[in-house]
Amino acid sequence: MTIPRPLFQAAQKTTLALLVTTVALTILFPLFFLFTFSLMSDYETYSEWPKPLWPHSQVRYRMEKISPQTTRLLIWNHGQSQWQPFGPEHIEANEEVAKKLSRFLTNYGNTTLSPSEILSHVQKAQNSGFHEFTAQKSLSQNYQRFFRLYSGAADAVLHSLSTALLTILISVVIGGMAGYAFARYVFKGKDVLKLSVLFVRMFPPVAIAIPMVVILGRMGLYDRPAGLSLIYSVNQIAMNIWITASIFMGIPESLEEAALIFGANKRGAFFRITLPLAVPGLAACAMYSFISSWNEVINALILTQFRPTFPVVVYKSLLGANAQVHLIAAGSIAQAAPAILFTLIIRRYLLQMWGGVKV
Amino acid sequence: MTTLTLTNLAKRYSRSVWGVRSMSLDVKDKEFVVFLGPSGCGKTTCMRMIAGLETVTRGRIILKGQDITDLPPKDRGVSMVFQNYAIWPHMNVYDNIAFALRLKNVDRKELNQRVKKVAQMVRIEPLLKRFPGQMSGGQQQRVALARALAVEPRLFLMDEPLSNLDAKLRVSMRTELKTIHQESGATSIFVTHDQSEAMSMADRIVIMKDGEIVQTGTPEEVYFQSANTFVAGFIGTPPANFFPVEWKNGKLEHPRFQLSPPPALHQAIENHGKNRLILGVRPESIQVVREEEALFIAPVLVVEPQGSHQIVAVQVEDEVVKLIMPPACGVQPGELLPLTFDSTRLHLFDEESQLRIPGY
Amino acid sequence: MNASKTPGLIRERQERMAPYLLIAPAVIYYAIFWLFPVLNAISGSFLSAPLKQGGEWTLKNYAAVFTDSMFYRALINTAIIVVVSVSLEFVLAFALALLINKKFRGSSLFLFLAIIPMSLPAVAVGAMWNSGLATNGWLNSALVHLGILGEAEKIPFLAGGQGANILLIILVDAWQVIPFMMIILLSGMQGLKPEMAEAGRVFGGTRWQVLHKITIPMLKQTIVTAMILRIIAAIQIWLIIVMIFGFNRLPVLMEQIVVNVDLYTAETFFRKGMALSVLVALIVSLASVAYLKASGALGAKKEEAS
Question: Would the CB atoms of A318 and C130 count as touching at under 8 Å?
Fold first, then answer.
């Protein structure tokens, strides 16, 4: 009792606050930097050091008069805090050069300036010796470029989506049926089945994917979203049995029994009473299925060829020879966004699920 | 006129586990029958078989002349109030009550009338648009009742409907349920483990133990003519006291007293012909008397005031015997009480079979 | 008498059949899309080519695995990663959960944040750390901005030796897993009735004793489940490693399967990959069973059953 109690409590509170802040920042920083990277222009990516911590929404340019006919363009380098030459050494005031420069500024500076705007800036620099101006940076440009540069990325999103939707359909229906049986009935082999759900997870997905190349090939489903969703469902059905079992266990059986008494048959009781009550939980289950299908790489890598899923495209873009960090960052963010969104929506269920899973 | 007949009804869960062993019962029209027994005695299983929620292993269920043993629940014309109410949380009160009527394609005008009528009966009219999540336990209970009454059932089943309510509400709901029963005239079966609930509500009580009926009778019958020691020891607050006695020389002998039974009882014991008996005495049949009239004297252990009366526990041999005394009579623990029995209200059971000896 | 019983028996039989009908699709599905490929993989790993194409039963595929020095490096690396990362993650997550197990302002926002890393697709995590750990990456940039490093200094995170590389992977994995593990434990702790721990304190237990004798045993179910899924996942780590270091620089088991199956096209490599994947499956199963045994969960299961 050497430390006075209020002081001790204050110290405790501060420590807690510090701890929580540290953890929160550790979680946030990498994500935030990835986001910052996804907004950088080529110039920032390759010529600035250190890299900006905060995404710049504007680019500062400066035109300097070299001679009555020629001007040169400089760009503000945030890393070194100085003007640096940017683009061609001389700019002549003609339409052809302005067009070229406009394209250059779009590609390397992520800024859109029309040739006529450029010419007017050149004119101003000619008039007063130098002229500074800022241009709005396009924030979506890297995202667009990712999809243009890595061919098939847009199609890959469609493949990913259809794979995910099929996975949801298969795994929620089949898993849900089994989950209902687990929740409502006592039957022989229930314990063995419960454990087998875990056992299924132990066999690495690749080990299944390799023979599946042949099996799906025979079924004509190799390199198709439908084939991929069949594999994803293997793991997901096991997961969904757990999830739906806990959902159905949360709905008292007497609600169904009451429906039976008051004029419904078994099917009616399920569809009128249990199913509507399970909808929020099942929606969470569907989102979870979506996330795991949307994020999966290794099976997709092995089981697709010309119709890759989106994560495969991002993965390959990174391993490619001329990896462009800022574009890949854009691709990753685009890939991560739906997963993050759905996870946040269903976070309550995720936790419940973990609490409810028993070995 | 008989509404419900159960013949040799039995439910087996597995090879050796029986829910109900054998049950035969007639329930008369408009009767209010209570299934009473400790938990695990089969009373709820029996009710669920009547409702069709549980399959029947053996025996028949006849309702208004129709064999319903194998019908699905919806075709039986029974309705039920569940222990946890089982109100559907995604429907408002009106839809909960109207559920069954809609499935039966009752036309909208009549449906509306019937919902309003039962809502009035259980006094939840202002709540019709509410959802169950916004209501108290008592209100949910009323909705469950209304829903069960709206279908105008041939048989009305209630599975411990009051056990989830708080003590005060439970007592007031008893009265209300009885009023509703009198108004609606529906033949009712009510399951409970609470004997005071059973006593206060039942026209007839069916006492069950280990999957079998032990005694069927009006509250008075099971109280004053308890069929065995189990019933005598289960019914009553506090239940009957038991004394092991021996029939010797025309007297019931106990280590602490000798009792000469009245002539009718004397004859019954003689006819029964066995010597080892158990004497059952209800607490109110034990009287405090002057010392010279006392059958025996016993020290007071504990006094429990109840307001209208008090329960006094005394020690007789190794047993604690409870008796009822008027309030504020100034009895203190440790005091010696001279006691005797009201000899017209004695219960005698065979020690071996635990059954009441017949004929008095 | 028997004839009149029939409808009841039919109903009873239907009742009994219902659960089997409901689980039948799942069982059939597993037979076709799990058991069949698994058996295929196992038999395929013992074949030189498909039987129809004149393949023969052989142990060559396994021999190829066991004579490959990469396999042993991969095995050791995987073992180190599993043991260190799973225990480190658990200890840190548990410590954090204990410290944070209080209601504080913004606690729901905090939980909201903590769940994000686990939801990220593996490729996004790979890209994030690839761009972060590069010499010109954001981690060095941030250190320069913070004044910890001078402008000319850069830490070559990825140029370290094998040990440093493993450490990096463990840290990256920890970044993703610890917050989630922490919330799982937190939600487990909040599921415990506070009276339990309070009773422990009331009856004279110290903080440590209460933790040791009451909190941990009551969380056991949650802990065992979380740990076993973590072990299974940790053995199968590969994508992040490949995205940060590329193939064959820090070999691990799963990565080697991908190397054999996806990078090379020859039948022999494909078969070797199959053999490897069967071995990995064996390792995962053994590790999980060993963990279940060690934690006593299997014993408890038996007690419950009897």
Answer: yes
